[in-house]
Automatic annotation (TrEMBL):
Signal peptide: none
Keyword tRNA-binding recorded: no
Database matches in PANTHER family: HTH-TYPE TRANSCRIPTIONAL REGULATOR DEGA, LACI-RELATED TRANSCRIPTIONAL REPRESSOR
MF (Gene Ontology): DNA-binding transcription factor activity; transcription cis-regulatory region binding
Species of provenance: Priestia aryabhattai
Protein name: DNA-binding LacI/PurR family transcriptional regulator
Any matching Pfam family: LacI
Keywords: DNA-binding, Transcription, Transcription regulation
InterPro entries noted in UniProt: HTH_LacI (IPR000843), LacI/GalR-like_sensor (IPR046335), Lambda_DNA-bd_dom_sf (IPR010982), Peripla_BP_I (IPR028082)
Every HTH lacI-type domain range: 30-84
Amino acid sequence: MLMVIYKTIEYFRDKIKEEITKKGTVKVKPTIYDVAKKAGVSIATVSKVINQTGRISEKTIKKVNEVMMELDYQPSSVAAALTGKKTYTIGVLVPDISNPFFAEVARAFENSARAAGYTLFLCSTDHQTAREHEYIDLLFKKQVDGIIIATELNDTKLVKKIVKHDVPLVLFSVDHPSISTHVVTIDNVRGGYIAGTYLIEKGHQSVTIMTEKDRKSSEGRLAGFKQALTEANLSLENQSIISCYSTVEDSRRASKQLLSLPNRPTAVFACTDLIGVSLINEARKQGLSIPGDLSVIGFDNTIYADIAEPGLTTIEQPISQMATSTFEQLLKSMKKEEHAKQRVTIIPELVERASVKKL
């Protein structure tokens, strides 16, 4: 009976293709039926080759793959999702793709995904709760094989929702005590401590910090910075701490605010490179010399730090290493290989350029 149905479908498809070819108006995409026919195997065999299941000879696998390449056949991820099979897709949530740090993170994730045979769905939430919900629901509908969250969610209940749906999950550069899942992050407290210690060693005693609003990571960097100052018997006045979002517009506003302080510090720790470069640009507009009149150290080591004038001394987050580790954790989860949830903490390092003066 099934053979009769298949032959009937095959007959009408050939007729339709014949008519369309005569008219020359539409190119029909090859299907699994075309692959099976040309390779001289059953549809079931082609399906097993695509999904890497069942016992099939290497000769048959090679033949089917050659035919798929010849016909430029692309298996349908939608069809795979409907049958509960792997879609080889991964969802990634970032807060702002225009931020150079997250742009580089996205690229690193894409490189790791391609190497493992996966495609990314990149979602930029713009720190909006509504978008977070919309994107998570979309990724559920797309039946992604795993999700990476690289943004501090406004609604942490979303993580529990993902876990409830049994979708493998890894948090990147974010963490929360109420969430039990794999985490890959940087030691932010240590990073802040390194920045503070470096400025002190350069002879700076009048220092302050520009923190990033609504980021737990920034709170850690502030804590480490304060610790370094305390150990050197220095204090940080709360009124001198400037806070802003890591955007061009708000960091520019915050830079003007800092430069107008009655007792301007000799050195500033900016919690992101974008904020640090914005401060350098605004200071130079006001006729100040960097690092002659003001020393600046950043955090991230993005391309902004490298192309800044002068080059921005910064605390490096090894993006490629962190992305690779994140994907390794996710792949283990997707293969059901993991045991206890792991928290991988990368130690940051100082990258010295030319934006800090020795007093």
